[in-house]
Amino acid sequence: MLPVVAVDRGSATPFHRQLYEGYRQAILDGRLRPGQRLPSTRGLAGELGLSRITVLSAFDQLLAEGYCEGRIGSGTFVARSLPDGLSTPVARAGRDGATRRGGRRTLSRIAAALERSPAPWLMTPGPFRVGDPAVGQFPLDIWSRLLSRRSRTIGAASLRYGDVLGYAPLREEIAAYLRTARGVRCEAGQVMIVSGSQQALEIAARALLDPGDQAWMEEPGYWGARDVLRAAGARLVPVAVDDEGLDVADGVARAPRARAAIVTPSHQFPVGGVLGAARRLQLLDWAREAGAWVIEDDYDSEYRYDGYPVAALQGLDRDSRVVYIGTFSKVLFPALRLGYLVIPPDFTARFAAVRHAIDICPPSFLQGVLADFIRDGHFARHLRRMRLLYGERRRALVQALRQELPGPLQLFGENAGMHLLAVLPRGWRDRPIAERAAREGLWVMPLSDLYLGRASREGFVLGYGDVPASDIPAAVRRLRSILESARR
Ligand SMILES: Cc1ncc(COP(=O)(O)O)c(C=O)c1O
Q1: Strand order in the sheet with 410-412
Q2: Using alpha carbons only, how large is the chain's radius of gyration in Å?
Q3: Helix (H, G, I), strand (E, B) or coil at 296
Q4: How far is the CA of 479 from the centre of ligand 1 (A)?
Q5: Residue 255 phi, psi dihedral angles, 5° rounding
Q6: What is the pTM of this model?
Q7: CB 418 within 8 A of CB 363
Q8: What angle do CA 331, 116, 420 make, to 5 degrees?
Q9: Pairing of strands 445-446, 459-463
Q10: Mean of the per-residue pLDDT values for the chain?
């Protein structure tokens, strides 16, 4: 790429001098960075319509003054250490106070209200980061084979924009899986492929809510849903959660006319309860009477260790009021960024219009690979293996917690998913402990972060999906010593 260096043909300054000054300025401004390659003299001369001698003479001067260095046979590069102690723009900005800013610049109220950067326990892999599956166990050899098979057969037609709802064969596979394994009532025509549940929530929020509308949120609840709904301008109403999930009566008392309820009925995040049949029917009845929507986030219910998986709430819905969301982040791997929405059939076109306004359609290539992976039986096989593995990791964690920390921690939600909740005794504060643990490379998500209002309980969400069973006792012992010093 050629940097923009203007040559003024009407100027009295010779061309080689103009070029030299233009490049020198670009280096000093940081538009060209140390180590960056300059264009070839021949190419630049051709581009600017100058003689090669002119360009050579400008470059000779830059080389002589140390702004550039030449490597024989490989071209001319910006010097790695600049002359006169001239510093990079970042360092200069520090010295001068700040980079220049023109006038007042403001963010939207929504952007200003969002967290500036994710908390440390959301950022770095390691024990006990929530949400990480056992990535080392993913059958990468099979995945790579399917990838290369797809890339060998890719044709020009697959380079065009795809279907707004996603790749049809993948939607067929997902619909069949959801009908059989999750009790979802759906056809492929209702399935929209999205980049994970986060985008599914965003599309649902934009399609169903106007700014200022009330939406029920589980209290405590999923931080990702809270952020998306806030960004959509919804007014979030915290609704109490107990060991059986969302307390529907509390929601009705707090916001009877809310436009939507966002729920995790099969495995409440983070407490772990299953929404019982009576509450499910109560929720659907309320939605019908209030003209509200139920947004079901079914993020990890493939993993249940005692008894059968709990069927989706969507399967009970007779009024087309449930929008169902699922993801491949837990059952395959989160970097895939693939998930899905199941939309009531009469609203698919409206959801498609909303999606088109956001990103037109999902990227096509990996959808094909995933469709092959499911169709060829690898998905079902991987799920079976992972269920056993997470069951073992869960046992190791529960055992270690009971052994090392029998007194203080009370456990919830340990019979499903890839995380459990450990609640602290009254009077303990979870955040300072989580911050201290983070400094020691232990990622424990504080429960109090997951409340919209004041936390009524404090504790930690502990993910075990990506922690080998053999590493768990030592990690729990580290947690114990952190808790002991917090107590002191
Ligand atoms: C409640 C809940 N929903 C959804 C997800 C997954 O989000 P995504 O599909 O965007 O990766 C998570 C991940 O931790 C979660 O805890």
Answers
A1: 410-412, 419-423, 459-463, 445-446
A2: 28
A3: strand
A4: 25
A5: -150, 75
A6: 0.88
A7: no
A8: 35
A9: antiparallel
A10: 92
Whole-number Å distance between alpha carbons of 319 and 261 = 15
- Amino acid, res. 38: L
Name all residues whose Cβ lies below 6 A of ligand 1: 130-131, 196-198, 222, 224, 264, 269, 297, 299, 327, 329, 334, 339
Q: Which residue has the least CA distance to atom 4 on ligand 1? A: 299
Dig out the tokens for 183 from the structure.
Answer: 């009790």
Q: How far is the CA of 302 from the centre of ligand 1 (A)?
A: 13
d(CA 488, CA 485): 5
User: Which residue's structure tokens are 């998500």?
Assistant: 445
What pairing do the DSSP bridges indicate for beta strands 339-342 and 191-194?
A: antiparallel
User: Quick one: DSSP state of residue 181?
Assistant: I
Which of 252-289 are b and which e, b meaning 16 or more Cβ less than 10 Å from the residue's Cβ?
A: bebbeebbbbbbbbbbbbbbbbbbeeebbebbbebbee
Identify which of 195, 228, 300, 450 to mutate to test ligand 1's pocket (most ligand atoms within 8 A of the CB). 300
Running DSSP on this structure, what letter comes out for residue 39? Answer: P
- Decide: helix, strand or coil at residue 60: helix
Residue 334: left (phi > 0), alpha (psi -120 to 50), or beta? alpha
In 3D space, the residue among 293, 85, 96, 310 whose CA is nearest the CA of residue 201 turns out to be 293
For residue 215, what is the enclosing H or E element?
strand 214-219
> Does pLDDT of 97 surpass 50?
no
Residue 131 Cα to ligand 1 middle (Å):
7
**Banded pLDDT at 88 (limits 50, 70, 90):** low
DSSP string, 237-277: EEEEEETTEE-HHHHHHH-TT-SEEEE--SS-TTT-----H
CA of 184 to the centre of ligand 1 (A): 19
The reported pLDDT for the residue numbered 83 is: 62
